[in-house]
Specification:
The complex is a heterodimer of chains A (301) and B (301). Chain A is mainly alpha-helical. Helix content of chain A is 81%, strand content 0%. Chain A has a single domain, classed as Up-down Bundle (Formate dehydrogenase/DMSO reductase fold). Chain A is built from eleven helices and no strands. By secondary structure, chain B is of the alpha+beta class. Chain B is globular and about 90 Å long. Classes of the chains: A mainly alpha (301), B alpha+beta (301).
Protein backbone atom coordinates (compact mmCIF):
# COMPACT_ATOMS: atom_id res chain seq x y z
CA UNK A 1 0.00 0.00 0.00
CA UNK A 2 1.32 3.39 -1.00
CA UNK A 3 -0.15 5.49 1.80
CA UNK A 4 -2.43 5.15 4.82
CA UNK A 5 -6.09 4.85 3.84
CA UNK A 6 -7.18 5.69 7.37
CA UNK A 7 -5.03 8.40 8.96
CA UNK A 8 -5.30 10.79 11.88
CA UNK A 9 -8.79 12.00 10.85
CA UNK A 10 -10.11 8.46 11.20
CA UNK A 11 -8.34 8.21 14.57
CA UNK A 12 -10.29 11.35 15.47
CA UNK A 13 -13.68 9.76 14.65
CA UNK A 14 -12.88 6.61 16.57
CA UNK A 15 -11.83 8.83 19.48
CA UNK A 16 -15.00 10.98 19.27
CA UNK A 17 -17.21 7.90 18.93
CA UNK A 18 -15.71 6.23 22.00
CA UNK A 19 -15.82 9.47 23.94
CA UNK A 20 -19.47 10.10 22.99
CA UNK A 21 -20.54 6.60 24.03
CA UNK A 22 -18.48 6.69 27.21
CA UNK A 23 -19.71 10.14 28.23
CA UNK A 24 -23.32 8.96 27.98
CA UNK A 25 -22.59 5.83 30.02
CA UNK A 26 -20.95 7.96 32.73
CA UNK A 27 -23.75 10.53 32.61
CA UNK A 28 -26.48 7.89 32.90
CA UNK A 29 -24.71 5.89 35.63
CA UNK A 30 -24.19 9.08 37.64
CA UNK A 31 -27.89 9.90 37.23
CA UNK A 32 -29.03 6.39 38.18
CA UNK A 33 -26.76 5.79 41.15
CA UNK A 34 -25.55 9.15 42.43
CA UNK A 35 -28.58 11.34 41.82
CA UNK A 36 -28.40 14.96 42.92
CA UNK A 37 -24.78 14.87 44.12
CA UNK A 38 -23.55 14.30 40.56
CA UNK A 39 -26.29 16.15 38.69
CA UNK A 40 -23.75 18.47 37.03
CA UNK A 41 -21.78 15.47 35.76
CA UNK A 42 -24.93 13.88 34.30
CA UNK A 43 -25.89 17.08 32.51
CA UNK A 44 -22.40 17.74 31.21
CA UNK A 45 -22.06 14.10 30.10
CA UNK A 46 -25.15 14.10 27.92
CA UNK A 47 -24.16 17.44 26.37
CA UNK A 48 -20.68 16.05 25.61
CA UNK A 49 -22.31 13.01 23.93
CA UNK A 50 -24.61 15.13 21.80
CA UNK A 51 -21.84 17.46 20.66
CA UNK A 52 -19.29 14.69 20.00
CA UNK A 53 -21.72 12.59 17.95
CA UNK A 54 -22.87 15.52 15.85
CA UNK A 55 -19.37 16.94 15.31
CA UNK A 56 -18.05 13.43 14.57
CA UNK A 57 -20.74 12.64 12.00
CA UNK A 58 -20.42 15.99 10.20
CA UNK A 59 -16.61 15.78 10.01
CA UNK A 60 -16.79 12.14 8.91
CA UNK A 61 -19.17 12.98 6.06
CA UNK A 62 -16.96 15.85 4.92
CA UNK A 63 -13.86 13.66 5.08
CA UNK A 64 -15.36 10.94 2.87
CA UNK A 65 -13.69 11.12 -0.50
CA UNK A 66 -17.05 11.39 -2.25
CA UNK A 67 -18.79 13.59 0.30
CA UNK A 68 -20.94 15.10 -2.46
CA UNK A 69 -22.97 11.88 -2.70
CA UNK A 70 -22.37 10.52 0.79
CA UNK A 71 -25.33 12.03 2.71
CA UNK A 72 -27.85 10.62 0.23
CA UNK A 73 -26.16 7.26 -0.18
CA UNK A 74 -25.95 6.91 3.59
CA UNK A 75 -29.74 7.21 3.79
CA UNK A 76 -29.66 3.92 1.95
CA UNK A 77 -27.41 2.49 4.67
CA UNK A 78 -30.35 2.68 7.10
CA UNK A 79 -32.31 0.44 4.78
CA UNK A 80 -29.39 -1.95 4.22
CA UNK A 81 -29.09 -2.75 7.95
CA UNK A 82 -27.45 -5.06 9.00
CA UNK A 83 -25.64 -5.80 5.73
CA UNK A 84 -22.37 -4.12 6.75
CA UNK A 85 -20.94 -3.23 10.18
CA UNK A 86 -21.16 0.42 9.07
CA UNK A 87 -24.93 0.16 8.57
CA UNK A 88 -25.16 -1.22 12.12
CA UNK A 89 -23.02 1.71 13.29
CA UNK A 90 -25.21 4.19 11.39
CA UNK A 91 -28.25 3.05 13.40
CA UNK A 92 -26.39 2.90 16.72
CA UNK A 93 -24.91 6.39 16.27
CA UNK A 94 -28.26 7.84 15.21
CA UNK A 95 -29.87 6.20 18.24
CA UNK A 96 -27.23 7.60 20.58
CA UNK A 97 -27.59 11.09 19.09
CA UNK A 98 -31.37 10.98 19.56
CA UNK A 99 -31.20 9.55 23.08
CA UNK A 100 -28.67 12.17 24.18
CA UNK A 101 -30.85 14.89 22.65
CA UNK A 102 -33.90 13.56 24.49
CA UNK A 103 -31.94 13.36 27.75
CA UNK A 104 -30.71 16.94 27.37
CA UNK A 105 -34.28 18.11 26.68
CA UNK A 106 -35.55 16.15 29.69
CA UNK A 107 -32.91 17.78 31.89
CA UNK A 108 -33.83 21.17 30.48
CA UNK A 109 -37.57 20.71 31.01
CA UNK A 110 -37.02 19.00 34.34
CA UNK A 111 -39.70 16.44 33.49
CA UNK A 112 -40.56 13.08 34.99
CA UNK A 113 -37.55 11.46 36.59
CA UNK A 114 -38.69 7.93 35.82
CA UNK A 115 -38.87 8.70 32.09
CA UNK A 116 -35.31 10.03 32.21
CA UNK A 117 -34.12 6.91 34.00
CA UNK A 118 -35.65 4.66 31.35
CA UNK A 119 -33.94 6.77 28.65
CA UNK A 120 -30.71 6.47 30.67
CA UNK A 121 -30.82 2.67 30.52
CA UNK A 122 -31.48 2.64 26.75
CA UNK A 123 -28.65 5.15 26.34
CA UNK A 124 -26.19 3.04 28.34
CA UNK A 125 -26.74 0.15 25.92
CA UNK A 126 -26.35 2.47 22.92
CA UNK A 127 -23.32 4.20 24.45
CA UNK A 128 -21.51 0.92 25.10
CA UNK A 129 -22.46 -0.27 21.61
CA UNK A 130 -21.08 2.90 20.02
CA UNK A 131 -17.76 2.60 21.84
CA UNK A 132 -17.53 -1.12 21.03
CA UNK A 133 -18.56 -0.45 17.42
CA UNK A 134 -15.47 1.70 16.84
CA UNK A 135 -13.39 -1.40 17.63
CA UNK A 136 -15.55 -4.02 15.90
CA UNK A 137 -15.49 -1.89 12.74
CA UNK A 138 -11.72 -2.28 12.64
CA UNK A 139 -11.84 -5.98 13.58
CA UNK A 140 -13.97 -6.89 10.57
CA UNK A 141 -11.10 -5.78 8.31
CA UNK A 142 -9.80 -9.22 7.51
CA UNK A 143 -6.80 -7.82 5.69
CA UNK A 144 -5.47 -6.33 8.94
CA UNK A 145 -4.86 -9.21 11.38
CA UNK A 146 -3.60 -6.85 14.11
CA UNK A 147 -7.11 -5.41 14.50
CA UNK A 148 -8.63 -8.87 14.91
CA UNK A 149 -7.69 -9.07 18.60
CA UNK A 150 -10.70 -9.98 20.76
CA UNK A 151 -9.61 -7.33 23.26
CA UNK A 152 -9.71 -4.40 20.81
CA UNK A 153 -13.40 -3.43 21.18
CA UNK A 154 -13.12 -3.68 24.98
CA UNK A 155 -10.00 -1.51 24.95
CA UNK A 156 -12.03 1.10 23.06
CA UNK A 157 -14.99 0.71 25.44
CA UNK A 158 -12.80 1.29 28.49
CA UNK A 159 -10.82 4.08 26.84
CA UNK A 160 -14.11 5.61 25.65
CA UNK A 161 -15.54 5.55 29.16
CA UNK A 162 -12.32 7.03 30.55
CA UNK A 163 -12.16 9.84 27.98
CA UNK A 164 -15.94 10.37 28.24
CA UNK A 165 -15.71 10.74 32.01
CA UNK A 166 -12.78 13.15 31.86
CA UNK A 167 -14.32 15.22 29.05
CA UNK A 168 -17.64 15.43 30.96
CA UNK A 169 -15.77 16.59 34.10
CA UNK A 170 -13.70 19.04 32.10
CA UNK A 171 -16.77 20.54 30.44
CA UNK A 172 -18.74 21.18 33.65
CA UNK A 173 -17.34 24.71 34.17
CA UNK A 174 -17.55 25.44 30.42
CA UNK A 175 -21.20 24.40 30.28
CA UNK A 176 -21.88 26.43 33.43
CA UNK A 177 -20.65 29.57 31.66
CA UNK A 178 -23.08 29.09 28.75
CA UNK A 179 -25.98 27.63 30.72
CA UNK A 180 -25.77 29.22 34.16
CA UNK A 181 -29.34 28.25 35.01
CA UNK A 182 -29.05 24.57 34.14
CA UNK A 183 -25.74 24.34 35.96
CA UNK A 184 -26.85 26.25 39.03
CA UNK A 185 -25.96 23.31 41.22
CA UNK A 186 -22.38 23.58 39.94
CA UNK A 187 -22.22 27.18 41.05
CA UNK A 188 -23.53 26.09 44.44
CA UNK A 189 -21.01 23.26 44.61
CA UNK A 190 -18.25 25.63 43.61
CA UNK A 191 -19.24 28.18 46.20
CA UNK A 192 -18.95 25.44 48.79
CA UNK A 193 -15.56 24.52 47.35
CA UNK A 194 -15.02 21.56 49.63
CA UNK A 195 -17.88 19.68 47.99
CA UNK A 196 -16.67 20.33 44.46
CA UNK A 197 -13.13 19.13 45.17
CA UNK A 198 -14.71 16.19 46.97
CA UNK A 199 -16.43 15.22 43.72
CA UNK A 200 -13.20 15.64 41.73
CA UNK A 201 -11.14 13.54 44.13
CA UNK A 202 -13.89 10.94 44.46
CA UNK A 203 -14.08 10.43 40.68
CA UNK A 204 -10.29 9.88 40.64
CA UNK A 205 -11.04 6.43 42.09
CA UNK A 206 -13.01 5.52 38.98
CA UNK A 207 -10.33 7.04 36.78
CA UNK A 208 -7.72 4.83 38.48
CA UNK A 209 -9.79 1.68 37.92
CA UNK A 210 -10.39 2.60 34.26
CA UNK A 211 -6.71 3.38 33.62
CA UNK A 212 -5.58 0.11 35.20
CA UNK A 213 -8.15 -1.85 33.16
CA UNK A 214 -7.07 -0.11 29.96
CA UNK A 215 -3.45 -0.92 30.79
CA UNK A 216 -4.29 -4.60 31.24
CA UNK A 217 -6.22 -4.63 27.94
CA UNK A 218 -3.37 -2.95 26.07
CA UNK A 219 -0.93 -5.55 27.46
CA UNK A 220 -3.34 -8.32 26.37
CA UNK A 221 -3.44 -6.73 22.89
CA UNK A 222 0.34 -6.83 22.75
CA UNK A 223 0.35 -10.55 23.53
CA UNK A 224 -1.28 -11.26 20.15
CA UNK A 225 2.31 -11.65 18.92
CA UNK A 226 1.60 -10.08 15.55
CA UNK A 227 4.37 -8.27 13.65
CA UNK A 228 2.63 -4.94 14.24
CA UNK A 229 3.39 -5.33 17.97
CA UNK A 230 7.12 -4.96 17.27
CA UNK A 231 6.32 -1.76 15.43
CA UNK A 232 4.79 -0.40 18.64
CA UNK A 233 7.49 -1.69 20.98
CA UNK A 234 10.67 -1.11 19.02
CA UNK A 235 9.72 0.15 15.55
CA UNK A 236 8.80 3.46 13.97
CA UNK A 237 5.69 3.90 16.12
CA UNK A 238 7.41 3.21 19.43
CA UNK A 239 7.83 6.89 20.35
CA UNK A 240 4.13 7.57 19.82
CA UNK A 241 3.20 4.41 21.70
CA UNK A 242 5.41 5.18 24.70
CA UNK A 243 4.14 8.77 24.70
CA UNK A 244 0.61 7.34 24.94
CA UNK A 245 1.59 5.04 27.81
CA UNK A 246 3.37 7.82 29.71
CA UNK A 247 1.05 10.79 29.13
CA UNK A 248 -2.24 8.96 28.72
CA UNK A 249 -1.90 6.33 31.44
CA UNK A 250 1.08 6.53 33.84
CA UNK A 251 1.14 10.27 34.62
CA UNK A 252 -2.66 10.42 35.21
CA UNK A 253 -2.27 7.31 37.39
CA UNK A 254 0.43 9.12 39.37
CA UNK A 255 -1.78 12.18 39.69
CA UNK A 256 -4.65 10.01 40.99
CA UNK A 257 -2.33 8.54 43.60
CA UNK A 258 -1.02 11.99 44.55
CA UNK A 259 -4.56 13.35 45.01
CA UNK A 260 -5.47 10.37 47.19
CA UNK A 261 -2.58 11.18 49.52
CA UNK A 262 -3.60 14.82 49.98
CA UNK A 263 -5.03 15.83 53.31
CA UNK A 264 -8.48 17.43 53.26
CA UNK A 265 -7.06 20.78 54.34
CA UNK A 266 -4.62 20.94 51.36
CA UNK A 267 -7.15 19.86 48.78
CA UNK A 268 -8.89 22.84 47.22
CA UNK A 269 -6.56 24.43 44.67
CA UNK A 270 -4.26 21.52 43.97
CA UNK A 271 -7.05 19.02 43.34
CA UNK A 272 -8.61 21.26 40.67
CA UNK A 273 -5.22 21.97 39.06
CA UNK A 274 -3.94 18.38 39.07
CA UNK A 275 -7.28 16.87 38.01
CA UNK A 276 -7.62 19.25 35.07
CA UNK A 277 -4.08 18.48 33.86
CA UNK A 278 -4.76 14.77 34.23
CA UNK A 279 -8.00 15.06 32.17
CA UNK A 280 -6.23 16.84 29.31
CA UNK A 281 -3.48 14.17 29.28
CA UNK A 282 -6.02 11.33 29.31
CA UNK A 283 -7.88 12.85 26.35
CA UNK A 284 -4.64 13.28 24.41
CA UNK A 285 -3.72 9.67 25.24
CA UNK A 286 -7.11 8.42 24.03
CA UNK A 287 -6.46 9.94 20.62
CA UNK A 288 -2.89 8.58 20.46
CA UNK A 289 -4.12 5.07 21.31
CA UNK A 290 -6.45 5.04 18.29
CA UNK A 291 -3.78 6.57 16.09
CA UNK A 292 -1.09 3.98 16.89
CA UNK A 293 -3.50 1.04 16.52
CA UNK A 294 -4.77 2.36 13.17
CA UNK A 295 -1.31 3.06 11.79
CA UNK A 296 0.40 -0.09 13.05
CA UNK A 297 -2.31 -2.28 11.55
CA UNK A 298 -2.17 -0.59 8.16
CA UNK A 299 1.61 -0.75 7.86
CA UNK A 300 1.22 -4.53 8.18
CA UNK A 301 -1.69 -4.67 5.76
CA UNK B 1 -8.68 14.33 2.35
CA UNK B 2 -11.05 16.12 0.10
CA UNK B 3 -9.55 18.82 -2.09
CA UNK B 4 -11.07 22.25 -2.36
CA UNK B 5 -13.77 22.49 -5.01
CA UNK B 6 -14.68 25.44 -7.16
CA UNK B 7 -18.26 26.69 -7.03
CA UNK B 8 -18.97 25.26 -10.46
CA UNK B 9 -17.66 21.86 -9.41
CA UNK B 10 -19.70 21.99 -6.24
CA UNK B 11 -22.91 22.77 -8.13
CA UNK B 12 -22.09 19.94 -10.53
CA UNK B 13 -21.55 17.59 -7.61
CA UNK B 14 -24.74 18.77 -5.90
CA UNK B 15 -26.65 18.14 -9.14
CA UNK B 16 -25.08 14.71 -9.39
CA UNK B 17 -26.12 13.92 -5.80
CA UNK B 18 -29.73 14.73 -6.62
CA UNK B 19 -29.54 12.40 -9.60
CA UNK B 20 -28.08 9.64 -7.47
CA UNK B 21 -30.77 10.08 -4.80
CA UNK B 22 -33.47 7.90 -6.38
CA UNK B 23 -30.81 5.30 -7.20
CA UNK B 24 -29.57 5.27 -3.64
CA UNK B 25 -32.99 5.21 -2.06
CA UNK B 26 -34.62 2.72 -4.39
CA UNK B 27 -31.60 0.52 -4.00
CA UNK B 28 -30.63 -1.48 -7.01
CA UNK B 29 -29.78 -4.81 -5.50
CA UNK B 30 -27.88 -7.80 -6.82
CA UNK B 31 -30.38 -9.30 -9.24
CA UNK B 32 -31.32 -6.03 -10.88
CA UNK B 33 -27.74 -5.23 -11.75
CA UNK B 34 -27.18 -8.14 -14.11
CA UNK B 35 -26.65 -7.29 -17.76
CA UNK B 36 -29.34 -7.97 -20.33
CA UNK B 37 -28.06 -11.32 -21.54
CA UNK B 38 -28.18 -14.49 -19.51
CA UNK B 39 -25.10 -15.04 -17.33
CA UNK B 40 -23.52 -18.44 -17.64
CA UNK B 41 -21.83 -20.67 -15.09
CA UNK B 42 -19.36 -19.18 -12.57
CA UNK B 43 -16.09 -18.43 -14.33
CA UNK B 44 -12.61 -19.05 -12.96
CA UNK B 45 -8.96 -18.63 -13.86
CA UNK B 46 -6.12 -20.99 -13.03
CA UNK B 47 -2.71 -19.33 -12.63
CA UNK B 48 0.14 -21.85 -12.92
CA UNK B 49 3.23 -20.26 -11.40
CA UNK B 50 5.50 -22.92 -12.96
CA UNK B 51 4.61 -21.75 -16.47
CA UNK B 52 5.06 -18.01 -15.87
CA UNK B 53 8.13 -16.46 -17.55
CA UNK B 54 7.64 -12.99 -16.04
CA UNK B 55 7.09 -11.20 -19.36
CA UNK B 56 4.50 -8.86 -17.79
CA UNK B 57 2.32 -9.04 -20.90
CA UNK B 58 -0.65 -9.53 -18.56
CA UNK B 59 0.22 -6.32 -16.72
CA UNK B 60 0.42 -4.38 -20.00
CA UNK B 61 -2.79 -5.91 -21.41
CA UNK B 62 -4.62 -4.97 -18.19
CA UNK B 63 -3.49 -1.35 -18.55
CA UNK B 64 -4.37 -1.28 -22.26
CA UNK B 65 -7.85 -2.83 -22.09
CA UNK B 66 -8.93 -0.86 -19.03
CA UNK B 67 -7.29 2.37 -20.26
CA UNK B 68 -5.29 2.75 -17.05
CA UNK B 69 -2.49 5.34 -16.89
CA UNK B 70 1.06 4.37 -15.93
CA UNK B 71 2.11 4.28 -12.27
CA UNK B 72 5.05 6.37 -11.16
CA UNK B 73 7.29 3.87 -9.43
CA UNK B 74 10.68 3.86 -7.80
CA UNK B 75 13.60 1.51 -8.30
CA UNK B 76 14.17 -0.30 -5.04
CA UNK B 77 17.57 -1.38 -3.81
CA UNK B 78 16.51 -4.57 -2.02
CA UNK B 79 16.67 -6.80 -5.09
CA UNK B 80 12.94 -6.57 -5.66
CA UNK B 81 11.90 -6.98 -9.30
CA UNK B 82 8.20 -6.70 -8.53
CA UNK B 83 7.14 -3.32 -9.90
CA UNK B 84 4.79 -1.76 -8.90
CA UNK B 85 4.74 -3.58 -5.56
CA UNK B 86 1.21 -2.61 -4.49
CA UNK B 87 -2.31 -2.35 -5.91
CA UNK B 88 -3.78 1.07 -6.54
CA UNK B 89 -6.71 2.67 -8.34
CA UNK B 90 -4.70 2.46 -11.58
CA UNK B 91 -2.72 -0.73 -10.94
CA UNK B 92 -4.97 -3.78 -10.96
CA UNK B 93 -2.31 -6.35 -11.87
CA UNK B 94 1.01 -7.06 -10.17
CA UNK B 95 3.62 -9.63 -11.19
CA UNK B 96 5.50 -10.85 -8.11
CA UNK B 97 9.12 -11.86 -8.83
CA UNK B 98 10.84 -14.32 -6.55
CA UNK B 99 14.45 -15.52 -6.73
CA UNK B 100 15.07 -18.82 -4.96
CA UNK B 101 18.37 -20.42 -4.03
CA UNK B 102 21.81 -18.96 -4.70
CA UNK B 103 24.76 -19.47 -7.03
CA UNK B 104 26.80 -21.38 -4.45
CA UNK B 105 24.23 -24.11 -3.97
CA UNK B 106 23.39 -26.21 -6.97
CA UNK B 107 19.63 -26.95 -7.24
CA UNK B 108 18.13 -29.31 -9.84
CA UNK B 109 21.00 -28.67 -12.26
CA UNK B 110 19.74 -25.12 -12.82
CA UNK B 111 22.90 -23.38 -11.70
CA UNK B 112 21.62 -22.80 -8.19
CA UNK B 113 19.21 -20.01 -9.01
CA UNK B 114 15.57 -20.42 -9.83
CA UNK B 115 12.95 -17.79 -10.72
CA UNK B 116 9.28 -17.94 -9.88
CA UNK B 117 6.75 -15.28 -10.94
CA UNK B 118 3.14 -14.90 -9.87
CA UNK B 119 0.59 -12.85 -11.78
CA UNK B 120 -1.60 -11.33 -9.08
CA UNK B 121 -4.85 -9.31 -9.09
CA UNK B 122 -8.29 -9.26 -7.46
CA UNK B 123 -9.08 -12.90 -6.74
CA UNK B 124 -12.85 -12.43 -7.08
CA UNK B 125 -13.68 -14.28 -3.85
CA UNK B 126 -16.72 -16.54 -3.77
CA UNK B 127 -17.84 -14.59 -0.67
CA UNK B 128 -15.97 -11.28 -0.93
CA UNK B 129 -14.99 -9.34 2.20
CA UNK B 130 -15.18 -6.03 0.32
CA UNK B 131 -18.83 -6.66 -0.62
CA UNK B 132 -19.60 -7.72 2.94
CA UNK B 133 -18.28 -4.51 4.55
CA UNK B 134 -19.34 -1.93 1.92
CA UNK B 135 -21.82 0.37 3.68
CA UNK B 136 -23.42 1.76 0.53
CA UNK B 137 -23.80 -1.43 -1.49
CA UNK B 138 -21.42 -0.08 -4.14
CA UNK B 139 -19.61 -3.43 -4.43
CA UNK B 140 -21.35 -6.62 -5.45
CA UNK B 141 -20.66 -10.11 -6.75
CA UNK B 142 -22.07 -10.95 -10.16
CA UNK B 143 -23.57 -14.40 -10.42
CA UNK B 144 -20.99 -15.55 -13.01
CA UNK B 145 -18.00 -14.63 -10.81
CA UNK B 146 -16.69 -11.06 -11.19
CA UNK B 147 -16.74 -8.82 -8.11
CA UNK B 148 -17.90 -5.49 -9.52
CA UNK B 149 -18.56 -1.98 -8.26
CA UNK B 150 -20.91 0.87 -8.86
CA UNK B 151 -18.84 4.05 -9.05
CA UNK B 152 -21.85 6.31 -8.39
CA UNK B 153 -22.67 4.65 -5.10
CA UNK B 154 -19.14 4.66 -3.64
CA UNK B 155 -18.78 7.16 -0.80
CA UNK B 156 -14.99 6.75 -0.57
CA UNK B 157 -14.81 5.46 3.02
CA UNK B 158 -11.91 3.05 2.34
CA UNK B 159 -13.47 0.13 4.26
CA UNK B 160 -13.10 -2.24 1.26
CA UNK B 161 -9.37 -1.46 1.04
CA UNK B 162 -8.98 -2.42 4.69
CA UNK B 163 -11.26 -5.46 4.59
CA UNK B 164 -9.83 -7.09 1.44
CA UNK B 165 -7.44 -9.86 2.56
CA UNK B 166 -5.01 -8.65 -0.15
CA UNK B 167 -5.69 -4.88 -0.09
CA UNK B 168 -6.96 -4.83 -3.68
CA UNK B 169 -9.68 -2.14 -4.03
CA UNK B 170 -8.38 1.40 -3.94
CA UNK B 171 -9.86 4.85 -4.24
CA UNK B 172 -8.35 6.69 -7.18
CA UNK B 173 -8.06 10.45 -6.68
CA UNK B 174 -7.83 11.25 -10.40
CA UNK B 175 -10.95 9.34 -11.38
CA UNK B 176 -12.52 10.17 -8.02
CA UNK B 177 -13.92 6.67 -7.50
CA UNK B 178 -13.16 3.17 -6.30
CA UNK B 179 -11.27 1.08 -8.88
CA UNK B 180 -10.09 -2.51 -9.09
CA UNK B 181 -9.82 -5.52 -11.42
CA UNK B 182 -13.22 -6.33 -12.94
CA UNK B 183 -12.20 -9.75 -14.29
CA UNK B 184 -12.83 -7.98 -17.65
CA UNK B 185 -16.57 -8.63 -17.32
CA UNK B 186 -16.99 -6.42 -20.39
CA UNK B 187 -14.91 -8.93 -22.38
CA UNK B 188 -16.60 -11.96 -20.78
CA UNK B 189 -19.97 -10.50 -21.85
CA UNK B 190 -18.70 -10.59 -25.44
CA UNK B 191 -17.55 -14.17 -25.17
CA UNK B 192 -13.86 -13.19 -24.76
CA UNK B 193 -11.29 -14.11 -22.11
CA UNK B 194 -10.03 -11.51 -19.62
CA UNK B 195 -7.33 -9.31 -21.25
CA UNK B 196 -4.46 -10.69 -19.14
CA UNK B 197 -5.41 -14.30 -19.89
CA UNK B 198 -5.74 -13.64 -23.63
CA UNK B 199 -2.15 -12.38 -24.01
CA UNK B 200 -0.33 -14.92 -21.82
CA UNK B 201 2.21 -16.55 -24.19
CA UNK B 202 2.82 -19.64 -22.04
CA UNK B 203 -0.76 -20.37 -20.93
CA UNK B 204 0.26 -19.70 -17.34
CA UNK B 205 -3.19 -18.05 -17.05
CA UNK B 206 -6.13 -20.15 -18.21
CA UNK B 207 -9.78 -19.06 -18.32
CA UNK B 208 -12.42 -21.75 -17.66
CA UNK B 209 -15.47 -22.43 -15.54
CA UNK B 210 -14.95 -22.28 -11.77
CA UNK B 211 -15.81 -25.96 -11.59
CA UNK B 212 -13.00 -26.85 -14.02
CA UNK B 213 -10.60 -24.50 -12.24
CA UNK B 214 -11.29 -26.19 -8.90
CA UNK B 215 -10.86 -29.62 -10.48
CA UNK B 216 -7.51 -28.63 -12.04
CA UNK B 217 -6.26 -27.22 -8.72
CA UNK B 218 -7.47 -30.23 -6.72
CA UNK B 219 -5.60 -32.56 -9.07
CA UNK B 220 -2.46 -30.40 -8.79
CA UNK B 221 -2.73 -30.49 -4.99
CA UNK B 222 -3.06 -34.28 -5.07
CA UNK B 223 0.16 -34.46 -7.07
CA UNK B 224 2.03 -32.62 -4.30
CA UNK B 225 1.89 -29.05 -5.62
CA UNK B 226 0.84 -26.01 -3.59
CA UNK B 227 -2.46 -24.30 -4.32
CA UNK B 228 -3.91 -20.95 -3.25
CA UNK B 229 -7.53 -19.90 -3.53
CA UNK B 230 -9.08 -23.35 -3.39
CA UNK B 231 -9.96 -22.99 0.31
CA UNK B 232 -8.54 -19.59 1.33
CA UNK B 233 -11.26 -17.24 2.66
CA UNK B 234 -13.86 -19.73 1.49
CA UNK B 235 -12.50 -20.03 -2.05
CA UNK B 236 -11.74 -17.58 -4.85
CA UNK B 237 -12.44 -17.48 -8.58
CA UNK B 238 -8.72 -17.13 -9.37
CA UNK B 239 -6.88 -20.22 -8.20
CA UNK B 240 -3.08 -20.48 -8.12
CA UNK B 241 -0.84 -23.53 -8.53
CA UNK B 242 2.86 -23.48 -7.59
CA UNK B 243 5.81 -25.70 -6.78
CA UNK B 244 6.95 -23.30 -4.02
CA UNK B 245 4.86 -22.20 -1.01
CA UNK B 246 2.80 -19.05 -1.55
CA UNK B 247 4.16 -17.20 1.47
CA UNK B 248 7.37 -16.92 -0.59
CA UNK B 249 5.48 -14.42 -2.76
CA UNK B 250 4.28 -12.56 0.31
CA UNK B 251 0.72 -13.92 0.09
CA UNK B 252 -0.73 -14.17 3.60
CA UNK B 253 -2.08 -17.48 4.89
CA UNK B 254 -5.85 -17.67 5.39
CA UNK B 255 -8.18 -20.33 6.69
CA UNK B 256 -11.18 -21.56 4.72
CA UNK B 257 -13.52 -19.48 6.89
CA UNK B 258 -15.59 -17.02 4.84
CA UNK B 259 -15.93 -13.34 5.76
CA UNK B 260 -19.35 -13.94 7.40
CA UNK B 261 -17.89 -16.84 9.39
CA UNK B 262 -14.91 -14.68 10.35
CA UNK B 263 -17.25 -11.95 11.60
CA UNK B 264 -19.33 -14.42 13.64
CA UNK B 265 -16.14 -15.95 15.11
CA UNK B 266 -14.97 -12.50 16.16
CA UNK B 267 -18.26 -11.70 17.91
CA UNK B 268 -17.97 -14.93 19.90
CA UNK B 269 -14.35 -14.06 20.80
CA UNK B 270 -15.39 -10.53 21.87
CA UNK B 271 -18.05 -11.98 24.15
CA UNK B 272 -15.48 -14.41 25.63
CA UNK B 273 -12.91 -11.66 26.12
CA UNK B 274 -15.58 -9.45 27.71
CA UNK B 275 -16.57 -12.15 30.19
CA UNK B 276 -12.91 -12.83 30.98
CA UNK B 277 -11.89 -9.20 31.50
CA UNK B 278 -15.17 -8.20 33.17
CA UNK B 279 -14.96 -11.16 35.57
CA UNK B 280 -11.34 -10.39 36.43
CA UNK B 281 -12.20 -6.74 37.02
CA UNK B 282 -15.13 -7.54 39.34
CA UNK B 283 -13.00 -10.05 41.24
CA UNK B 284 -10.21 -7.46 41.63
CA UNK B 285 -12.63 -4.81 42.90
CA UNK B 286 -14.20 -7.28 45.33
CA UNK B 287 -10.79 -8.29 46.70
CA UNK B 288 -9.82 -4.63 47.07
CA UNK B 289 -13.05 -3.73 48.90
CA UNK B 290 -12.77 -6.77 51.20
CA UNK B 291 -9.18 -5.91 52.04
CA UNK B 292 -10.08 -2.32 52.82
CA UNK B 293 -12.95 -3.44 54.99
CA UNK B 294 -10.71 -5.84 56.93
CA UNK B 295 -8.09 -3.09 57.37
CA UNK B 296 -10.79 -0.73 58.59
CA UNK B 297 -12.03 -3.42 60.96
CA UNK B 298 -8.53 -4.03 62.36
CA UNK B 299 -8.09 -0.31 62.74
CA UNK B 300 -11.42 -0.17 64.57
CA UNK B 301 -10.40 -2.96 66.94
Amino acid sequence: MSELTWGYMMAGYLFLGGLAGGAYVVSALADLFKGDDYEVLSKSGCLVTLFSVVIGIVLLLLDLKRFEVAPLVILNAYRRFPASMVTVGTWVLTGLALVSLVTCVLWYLGGNRLVRKIVDVVGIVLGLSTAAYTGILLSYSRGVPFWGSPFLPWTFVISGTLTGLTMALLMIPVAAIFMPKAFQSFVLLYERKGQFTEMLSHTQKYITVLILTELVLVVLELTTGHGAVNLLLTGTLSWTFYTYLLLGLFIPLGISYYISTLKTSDKDGSVVLFSTSSYVLILFGGFLLRYVILTAGQIFH
Amino acid sequence: MTEKMSRKEFLKAAGASLMVAPLALEGLEKGQRSPVQELGKQKGVVVDVRRCIGCKACQVACKAWNKLPAEKTEITTDGEYTNPTYFSGITWKIVHFKEIGDYDNEVDGTGGLKWRMLSDNCKHCIEPSCVSVCPSGALWKRSDGPVLYDVDRCIGCGYCTMACPWGVPHFDDEIHAIRKCTMCYDRIDQGLEPACVSVCPTDALKFMTLEEAKKTATEAEASGLYTYGLDEVGGTSWIYISDIPFHEFGLPEYTSVTQKGYETDLLVKFAGAGLFVGGALLAAIRLYVERRESIAKEGGD
